[in-house]
Specification:
SAM-dependent_MTases_sf; methyltransferase; 264 residues; Methyltransferase domain-containing protein; transferase; alpha/beta; methyltransferase activity; seven-stranded mixed β-sheet
Length: 264
């Protein structure tokens, strides 16, 4: 799905705050010494390298997975200056390794890896690939949202119901969806337990054109027919320019779930 928007995704999706990554890493006891290169970390669903680069620059031996050739090629491009990243074009359920990892990371991706009929087997695989004292760290960037008055104006123009969200739902709605799609299957078997959640809220000003570029990377918009997409994005951009000029205020939420492996 994301092959044709890999560059847009890299350029316009928000980054994970460095302080959030550092605070999450502090919760993983196996990553605490200064000898970073000896630590083996697995990243599930690397996309265009949004999280891979921060992990690589911290010196870890990173094994990264993604099933999409476009995304993985973009990740290889942005990680070209690092020799400590190993790339695999494979979905998580088809990945095999004799290595147990010190920490497993997934950046806004585990809902893809854990879904489907084999979710119980996927959870067991996560458990087997992680060292007993290791942590599963899930980072999330929920879609940036414009102020309510702007969203209401767009909803009126599109004939959409309210409340209207560019990202499809509120931050609370996204969290509820992740509870159902990720945390329920992850915790129901007793193999993992939540240790801590860390949050970071940000306010960012973007040009309407940059916001539209971000908006085009969301999965419901990728699949729009070209004629429909041209009218849809054109209408929204016109409203954003009229309401905000060249500076659109947006708010976003990033979070990190620190998850421990049980030894049952």
């Amino acid at each position: 799905m994301y092959t044709d928007v890999a560059t847009l995704y890299h350029d316009f999706r928000p980054r994970y705050p460095e302080t959030l990554i550092d605070d999450a890493i502090k919760e993983s006891p196996l990553l605490q010494s200064a000898d970073a290169p000896k630590y083996k970390v697995l990243e599930i669903g690397c996309g265009p390298g949004t999280l891979t680069v921060p992990l690589a620059k911290r010196g870890y031996a990173v094994t990264t997975l993604d099933p999409g050739v476009g995304m993985l090629n973009k990740c290889k491009e942005v990680c070209s200056g690092y020799q400590n990243v190993e790339f695999h074009q494979v979905p998580f359920h088809d990945f095999h390794s004799d290595v147990q990892f010190d920490t497993i990371f997934a950046g806004t991706s585990l809902h893809w890896a854990i879904s489907g009929k084999e979710e119980a087997e996927t959870v067991k695989k996560l458990h087997s690939l992680l060292k007993d004292d290791g942590k599963l760290i899930l980072l999330w960037n929920y879609p940036r949202e414009a102020p309510e008055d702007i969203r209401n104006t767009v909803a009126d123009a599109l004939g959409a119901s309210k409340p209207f969200y560019f990202g499809g739902d509120s931050a609370e709605g996204h969290e509820k969806s992740m509870d159902e799609r990720v945390f329920t299957p992850l915790f129901s078997g007793g193999l993992f337990e939540l240790s801590k959640t860390i949050r970071s809220d940000t306010i960012t000003k973007l040009s309407p054109q940059d916001y539209i570029s971000f908006f085009k990377t969301l999965s419901p918009n990728i699949v729009k027919e070209e004629k429909e997409a041209t009218k849809y994005f054109g209408t929204i951009e016109q409203i954003l320019v009229q309401k905000c000029g060249d500076s659109l205020p947006t708010s976003g939420t990033s979070s990190a779930n620190i998850i421990s492996k049980t030894t049952r």
